[in-house]
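Tokenised fold entry reproduced for everyone:
>
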Amino acid sequence: MYPNDLTTCYPTGLTYMVLNWMISGALVPWHFTTIMRPLHFLAPCLLAGFANAQTAFLVDTTLDKLFLVDCTTGAATFLADVDNNGLTTAADLSYRFATGELWTVDLSGGEIGTINPASGTFTPMYQTNLSGWQGIAWDETTQLFFLANQNDNNYSFDPATNQLTLLGNSGTGLLTCLDTDLAGNLYGIDFLSGDVMLIDKVTGVGTLQSTTTNGMQGLGIDPVTGIWFGSSSNTDSLYTIDPITGVSVLIGAHGAGVTFMKGFDLIDFGFGTFATNTTFGTACSTLRISGDTRPVIGSSWDLIIGSVPANAVLGLLLLDLTNPILALAPLGAPGCTLYSGGTGLVVLPLPVAFPAFSFAIPGNPALVGQSVFAQGAVIEPGVNALEIVTSNGLMGCIGDF
């Protein structure tokens, strides 16, 4: 199901809202006017007011079992067996907050996919045709997964396009866990040395930050408190890690029969509403839209439009509070779908700048929970009768962090 209509934290019904947003300092207000409708898509905007993230998933690759971990004690509770559908060795875990999905990569088989926490069912999504995977982490800002291989190369993976991209050699020894912080910084820990590395998301190169206890194969950074949690396969125990000094403090053993912890990640949620970007739908060309930053009140939501067709002559950005899911085939653009109502229309000269558009979000708490739908389009003479092709859709859920 695609995000449809207005998705908010507010009670459904007839609530009226008008947003007057000043774009790029221009003296022209953009008016988004809507009547809220019953919710059609359960989005992360609904996850407001929970306690900060103190629970995590853990996978034991000797037992092939998935566990839930209490981060206040380190204690693990068995959830499900994961030895199914060709999953051989789940190398690290990554919880994708916006979709509520738990992802992994198979160290041996090379498949990237999801694990159903309730059943343990592994669903392969993409075959990398590589072995030796050690770490995987979702980055909310770029909407990409980042992966570490035991050959010391780092990669990115776009789940919307199934594109695996080699970034480069990290220059470290053996990164066995990855995670991103709230600002989108990517970190990893070297299993052998305990070196804490800041990893460049473009080149894959690691820069030493500190040195902690070795043997870490799980890393989770709490987006609310900023606390680092590390799980060690040497002791099968949970620690907090100070990324500046490297000092680790034991929280407690996992227990529950855990014998070799290979993957770990926090179930991220927190006080307030975590701003998210969710890509959805299908483009009818190479054109793609994504968010470079998340839509947090009092900040700018930077949007990226990439892979512009070579014959395009003009770019367009559509913004709205609704998603009509309107097929454009009857209008002469077969395979194209409108995922934004287009109340706000921005003309983008080519080549498209980076970011394509910076959307200033007022620091108004009343906006928290509001969804904004964005889509890219280009005019491309001769491509179809309408001479327009469209990108995928992007739903930004405004949050307060």
Q: What stands out?
A: The longest strand covers residues 388-397. The chain has two domains: 16-48+273-397, 55-266. Residues 231 and 238 are 5 Å apart (CA to CA).
